[in-house]
Amino acid sequence: MNTTPAPSRAELLTMLGSLAVTDAENRARGCSNPIRLRGTSIHVDAATGQVVHTYSSADERDGYTYARCGDRRAAVCPSCSHEYKGDAWHLLMCGLSGGKGVPGTVTEHPATFVTLTAPSFGPVHRYTPPRPGGRTPACRARRDRPVCPHGRPLSCPRRHDADDPQVGQPLCGQCYDYPAHVLWQWHAPELWRRFTIALRRNLARRVGITVKTLTQLARVSYTKVVEFQARGAIHIHAVIRLDGPTGPDSPPAALLDASDLEHAVHAAAGHVTLDVPSLDGHALRLRWGEQVDTRTITTGAGRDTRTGPAHPEQVAAYLAKYLTKSTEDFGLPVRVRSAASAAAAGATPHVVRIIDTAARLAATHEDYRPILRRLATLGYRGHPITKSRAYSVTFGSLRSARREWRHERPALDPDAPVREVLDADINDLTHAHTVIVLSEWTYAGRGYLDNPSAALAIHSAVQARTR
Which of 407, 448, 398 is CA-nearest to residue 83? Predict the structure, then answer.
């Protein structure tokens, strides 16, 4: 005789809610903060007017459709960040080795891995990776032990670890030029635009032709990725490639090689400037930092080397890794409203000073008012990854291919002895441009429901379907 007591109503609701949450997580494929939607989609054959497929959120167990948040930051959503990193790797790799519509001959085109840095706004504590078999170099060892006008030492004999919280902090906060830091960060996208223009001019000058003639012989294709340094300023890592006039499907003129490209990069980075108004009303001249690095990209390079030629897979993996990071390492939340909110969230004093300077700049100059929307990225207003039109595939094409692959039904071998009778394939109709999609969706919230709310949602959805 079974003496196990029947579960109570509260226990049943808890089990039902847990089942609903698990089902929602599976439908959102592990997204940490999905978007809840309600609505319907109807696929109609344009030729016959026949409804070939319908979908409604009311058919789901809890009455909601879950859309992934798509956030690239690993600290916000590991699942969507992992997917974004994979897409970025394919985008970068296809531009270096071909694939997904990019010809494999692109590996023969001159290409270089470029790093552009911000100038110095004041000495900061730094970490230098140890050389093979050696010790970590000292931070700023100096025998004369100088001091700044405020009496603070401008040397540091310590050997900082990579995760030392002191790395990136100024040796003297009063000497550090915070206004210049914020202005450079805000105008970095314009500096990059001017750099690409100067790069083409220097390439043309190096081979003794005009820029107009250069466009008939070669095209500069690139993709760039932004990385935040420990001091809160950005690095720009870029893959720059020389193509023929029609793009990656044609080789550049024989008179241009990787050496010409790298010389033009150094020349352009050293001469590009931008004059902008500062806090005191005077003009401030912005430029790239003195550290400009170029590494020729070739399939014959080692995959783990830090200097010299770089392997395409090494470059793609390195850049894709940094796309999943932002300013969370500085203790900043996703949204920052003021320096006080950043300090309350646990941001470092250096980062708080940067945000405070940005807020004062926005209050002083009308042109800088939009910087208040970029406090979480310390004043940087660009996208973490950008590319020229002809460099490679797009994120949109990669995501469209994933959606089609996920929705396609598994095909059987034509010679299989048993054939399954399937309905008309929606994807085939869509590809033939014969399907009209009528959709009506409304926003219902963010995130998963808690167990009690999920149980009630299932109960309501079942009642609605019963009616």
Answer: 398
Token pair 């990059």 is found at 192
Greatest extent of the chain over all pairs of C-alpha atoms, in Å: 97
CA distance linking residue 135 with residue 128, whole number of Å: 10
- Provide φ and ψ at 260, rounded to 5°: -65, -40
C-beta of residue 409 within 8 angstroms of C-beta of residue 422: yes
Q: Which helix (H) or strand (E) holds 260?
A: helix 258-271
CA distance 82 to 92: 15
List the beta bridge partners of residue 234: 228
**pTM exceeds 0.90 for this model:** no
Phi, psi of 436 (to 5 degrees): -105, 130
- DSSP H or E stretch at residue 45: strand 35-45
Instruction: Burial-class residue 295 by CB neighbours within 10 Å (0-12, 13-18, 19+).
Output: buried
The pLDDT tens digits of the residues spanning 211-237 come to 999 999 999 999 999 999 999 999 999
DSSP 86-151: HHHHHHHHHHHH-BTTB-GGGGGS-EEEEEE-PPPSS-B----PPPTTSPPPPSB--SS--B-TTS
Q: Distance between CA 348 and CA 287 in Å, rounded?
A: 27
Q: Is the four-CA dihedral 316, 319, 325, 331 of positive or negative sign? A: positive
Q: What is the pLDDT of residues 52-82, one digit of tens each?
A: 888 888 888 888 999 999 999 888 899 999 9
88 burial via Cβ count (<10 Å: 0-12, 13-18, 19+): buried
Rounded CA-CA distance 161/101 in Å is 44
* DSSP letters spanning 324-393: T--SGGGT--S---SHHHHHHTT--HHHHHHHHHHHHHHHH-GGGGGGGGGGGGTT--S-SEEE-TTSS-
One-letter amino acid of 243: D
How far apart CA 239 and CA 113 sit, in angstroms, is: 5
